[in-house]
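[audit] Reproducing an earlier prediction to check determinism. Same input, same settings, fresh worker. If the C-alpha cells differ from the archived copy the diff job will pick it up downstream; this log only records the rerun itself.
[audit] input (177 residues):
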Amino acid sequence: MTEYLTQAVVLGYRPQKENDRLVDLYTKDFGRLEVRVIGGRRILSKLSPHLDLFNLATVRLVEKKSVTLTDVLSDDDFGKERRSPDFYPKFLKILSLVRALTPKAMPDTHLWHYLVKGLKTGNGDVRTLLKVLGYDPQHAACDSCNRSPVSVFRIKDQSFFCRSCSLKDSPDGIIYF
C-alpha cells in the first residue's frame, strides 16, 4: 500500500456502486487520475463538499489494487470567478476536453499551470488549451477541404474543421471556438 499527497483540480465525478463515487482529477504530480471515494455519495460524507467540480484541493491518495481517495482539503473553490456568467460554459468545455484528450497518469506541468491559472483568473479558452495539449488551431487546416482558418475541433478523431464543413457532420463531440 502506497500513499501520495498532491494538489488536484476536480474534473468530474460519477456514481459507483451504492454509496461510492468515482472522481476524475487532474493532479499536479500524476496527471489525470480516476479515483474511488468510498462513501462519497452519502449525505453526511465529509469528503463530498471538497470534491465539487472546478475545486482545487489537496488530496491524499492510497494505491493498493486501485487508487482510493482517503482525505481531501479544499484549497480554493474560485467562488469569485464562478459568479461570472461565462465561467461555467467556458470551463465545462475546458474540463471536458482535458478529460477526453489527456491520458491517465501522464503529468503535464504546462497543462497543470494553465488549468490553475485559468480557474484563478476566470480566463481560459479552448484555443489556448488545444495549443497546450499539442493541437494548435492556428497552424491547422480543415480535414475535409484543407482550408484555414479552422473554428471547430472534433474530439472523437481529434481533427479540425472549418465552419462550413462542420455543419455537414453530427454535433456530437464537436467543440466550437
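[audit] rerun output stored. Observation attached for the diff report: The domain at 2-76 is CATH 2.40.50.140 (OB fold (Dihydrolipoamide Acetyltransferase, E2P)).
[audit] end
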